[in-house]
């Protein structure tokens, strides 16, 4: 059962457990849990998440979380509507 | 007919001419860089009589086009020794455009070093007057006296640091409530203004005829498309990120990505990040009675500016934006927003670029002049610039000069200009922009942070060194065009993701000018601007050896990712190769 450290930012901070400091808390997850499972566990609708970082690296929703991972979750802050090729206006 | 105002500081004459045909479709950066390249010898001393200082509002500035109140300022830079364009969002840009003024060119120099003048412009022309008691003042007192004497008159001014010709001095414009807070900050253009003996330009737009629009229907179509895109995109829309949290929303994002330069670029994470983040700024503004969603000029949809209040609710300073808060906060190890606000106030009052100021203070801390995190010591050091003490003159000439004065190697500059708020070892593409932009280290010149960190305009892994030359080149080209339109760079978030917004941007330009530019034409114009700028720099003595990172970034690893800057020289040089092809 890996335990991960979670930081929620800006408008998704409202999904943090009551009483936690600055949207930061730890969560224990079943083995093999993915980032999207974490969103479900916290009740964050996926459309409200633009991007997450795991250990400082941008991560997709299907990334498997491991013991000690640090997860930062952001709304579209910081985030487009749809991916397009880089630098193509 | 658009006008060119020529101001000769040697014989104190002002001439209003018709804008020559060659420059007919140009505005903003396109016009300032072309005029500088045409009229300034590349080997001229930046503070001497042969440099010229050029001001130009953008192509659509002064119209109803949203978020388009920008003015470009150009000259040969005393900080980098190369060509420079810096721009600001301000009502005075809109006033000049509505008066039909395409550009103001300041030439020559008074014979007496301490002579200062103000240029007064109105719909009938302009004249130079002695600055009298307006010279030597901090810019808040200057702004108050201008308002008291002339009413709500727009201004473009240089502060005490610029009067003393310091290479960290920016050019200051008024905001919507006539605060001295909107800066064309980078590259020491305030020092060029000071060296010209020009304290300020005062602009009275009473009776201005307005901007001539060649094709009103097309302009309206484009305006609607662009406005819709800005109102739709989550970053730019009313109630969106920039509007509610300001640009400092980026503090937490860059910190999480390990790319927030901390304590003079010795780490990519700052333990005090959450205390200075946009979320905290917005919440504190709400509690104390400050303001978020403030606009730097009328007609902005995004409205990303803010007003910071003291604990007692009184106004302290506008504005706490990302790069300023980073520079004077995380980069100096300072995590107290009231201290950071005071440092920004000192920059606004002294006429200093906040980015260069923060990079320089951190270098000074590295040199042992103050401890990292010591906000009161930072305040004392920064005040020295306006006072013109020997130490103030060292600091006032920027990070590279200060690093040399104290024998340091960890000096984060490119072409003499301090690096902004994104660590190149953690965001490799922005490093390519810092290294290859004709402007020196400048994040706005090609904001690869959008795809690398924010997932806007595609996605790219920030830590991978490969493929970054293409991303940087494309964005540098698009930005050179955008900097010429008069639009705020932040419309890029919307138009990179929403194709109709991009179309609308081009259509508003076509509407004003009567042109039929396509997206490809915009790219060709952007490329041409960059080539003009690079040619100037080559003639000034720049080679590809100047497109290199400060050496410490090649061997010193940066936590938390423990990366060095590993984009190979051949990849970096691909930018120059593309921009010199088929010249």
List low-confidence stretches of chain A: 79-89
Principal-axes geometry of chain B comes out as: globular
Mean pLDDT of chain A: 84
Q: Tally of extended strands of chain B?
A: 17
Helix amount of chain B: 40-55%
- Count of individual beta strands of chain A: 5
Largest sheet of chain B: 6 strands, mixed
By DSSP (H or I, 4+ residues per run), the number of helices of chain A equals: 1
Q: What's the N-to-C terminus distance of chain B?
A: 32 Å
Strand order of the largest sheet of chain B: 2-1-6-3-4-5
Order of helices and strands of chain A: EEHEEE
Rg of chain B computed from alpha carbons, rounded to a whole number of angstroms: 22 Å
What is the beta-strand fraction of chain A? 25-35%
Task: Report the β-strand fraction of chain B as a percent range.
Answer: 5-15%
Describe this structure in words.
The complex is a heterodimer of chains A (89) and B (583). With 89 residues, chain A is mainly beta. Chain A contains 1 helix and 5 strands. Chain A has one helix at 35-42; strands at residues 3-8, 24-28, 51-54, 57-59, 70-74. A 5-stranded mixed β-sheet of chain A has the order 2-1-5-3-4, with no helix packed on it. Chain A is globular. The model of chain A is unreliable at 79-89 (pLDDT under 50). In chain B, strand 1 and strand 2 (13-18) form a beta hairpin. The mean pLDDT of chain B is 97. The relative contact order of chain B is 0.13. Chain B has 24 helices and 17 strands. Chain B has 583 residues and is an alpha+beta fold. Chain B is globular, with a radius of gyration of 22 Å. In chain B, the strands form 4 sheets. Chain B has a 6-stranded mixed β-sheet, with helices on both faces.
Give the structure's gist in a few sentences.
The complex is a heterodimer of chains A (89) and B (583). Chain A is mainly beta and 89 residues long. Chain A has one helix at residues 35-42, and strands spanning 3-8, 24-28, 51-54, 57-59, 70-74.
């Amino acid at each position: 059962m890996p335990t991960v450290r979670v930081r929620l930012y800006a408008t998704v901070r409202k999904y943090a457990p009551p009483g936690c400091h600055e949207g930061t808390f730890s969560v224990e997850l079943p083995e093999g849990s993915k980032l999207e499972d974490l969103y479900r566990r916290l009740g964050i609708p996926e459309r409200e998440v633009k991007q997450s970082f795991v250990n400082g690296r941008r991560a997709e929703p299907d990334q498997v979380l491991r013991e000690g991972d640090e997860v930062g979750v952001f709304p579209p802050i910081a985030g487009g509507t749809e991916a397009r090729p880089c630098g193509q206006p | 007919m658009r006008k060119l105002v020529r101001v000769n500081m040697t014989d104190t004459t002002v001439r209003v001419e018709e804008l020559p045909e060659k420059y007919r479709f140009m505005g903003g950066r396109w016009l300032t860089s072309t005029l500088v390249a045409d009229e300034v010898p590349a080997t001229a001393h930046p503070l001497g009589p042969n440099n010229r200082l050029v001001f130009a509002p953008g192509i659509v500035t002064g119209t109803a086009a949203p978020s388009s109140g920008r003015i470009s300022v150009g000259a040969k830079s005393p900080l980098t020794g190369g060509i420079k364009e810096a721009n600001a969002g301000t009502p005075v840009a809109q006033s000049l455009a509505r008066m039909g003024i395409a550009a103001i060119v300041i030439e020559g120099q008074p014979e007496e070093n301490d002579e200062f003048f103000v240029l007064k412009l109105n719909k009938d022309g302009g004249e130079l007057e002695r600055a009298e008691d307006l010279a030597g003042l901090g810019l808040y007192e200057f702004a108050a006296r201008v308002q008291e004497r002339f009413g709500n008159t727009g201004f473009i001014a240089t502060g005490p640091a610029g009067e003393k010709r310091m290479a960290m001095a920016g050019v200051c414009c008024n905001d919507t409530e006539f605060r001295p807070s909107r800066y064309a900050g980078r590259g020491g253009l305030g020092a060029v203004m000071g060296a010209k003996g020009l304290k300020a330009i005062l602009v009275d737009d009473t009776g201005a005829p307005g901007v001539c629009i060649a094709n009103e229907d097309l302009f309206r179509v484009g305006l609607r498309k662009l406005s819709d895109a800005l109102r739709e995109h989550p970053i730019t829309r009313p109630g969106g990120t920039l509007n509610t949290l300001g640009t400092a929303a980026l503090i937490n994002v860059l910190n999480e990505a390990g790319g927030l330069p901390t304590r003079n670029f010795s780490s990519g994470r700052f333990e005090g990040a959450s205390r200075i983040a946009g979320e905290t700024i917005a919440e504190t503004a709400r509690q104390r009675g400050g303001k978020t969603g403030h606009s730097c000029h009328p007609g902005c949809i995004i409205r990303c500016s803010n007003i910071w209040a003291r604990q007692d609710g009184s106004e302290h300073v506008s504005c706490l934006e990302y790069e300023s808060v980073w520079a004077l906060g995380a980069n100096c190890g300072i995590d107290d927003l009231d201290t950071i606000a005071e440092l920004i106030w000192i920059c606004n009052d002294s006429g200093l670029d906040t980015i260069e100021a923060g990079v320089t203070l951190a270098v000074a801390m590295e040199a042992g002049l103050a401890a990292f995190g010591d906000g009161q010591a930072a305040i004392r050091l920064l005040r020295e610039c306006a006072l013109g003490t020997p130490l103030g003159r060292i600091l006032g000439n920027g990070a590279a000069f200060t690093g040399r004065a104290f024998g340091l190697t960890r000096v984060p500059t490119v072409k003499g200009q301090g690096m902004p708020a994104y660590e190149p070892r953690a965001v490799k593409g922005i490093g390519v922009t810092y290294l290859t932009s004709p402007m020196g280290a400048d994040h706005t010149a090609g904001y690869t942070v959008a795809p690398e960190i924010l997932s806007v305009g595609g996605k790219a892994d920030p830590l991978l060194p490969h493929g970054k030359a293409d991303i940087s080149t494309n964005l540098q080209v698009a930005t050179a065009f955008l900097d010429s339109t008069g639009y705020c760079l932040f419309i890029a978030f919307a138009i990179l993701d929403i194709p109709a917004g991009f179309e609308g941007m081009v259509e508003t330009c076509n509407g004003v000018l009567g042109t039929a530019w396509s997206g490809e034409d915009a790219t060709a114009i952007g490329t041409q601007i960059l080539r003009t700028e690079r040619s100037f720099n080559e003639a000034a003595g720049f080679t590809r050896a100047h497109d290199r990172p400060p050496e410490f970034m090649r061997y010193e690893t940066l936590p938390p990712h423990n990366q060095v800057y590993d984009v190979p020289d051949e990849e970096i040089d691909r930018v120059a190769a593309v921009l010199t092809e088929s010249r």
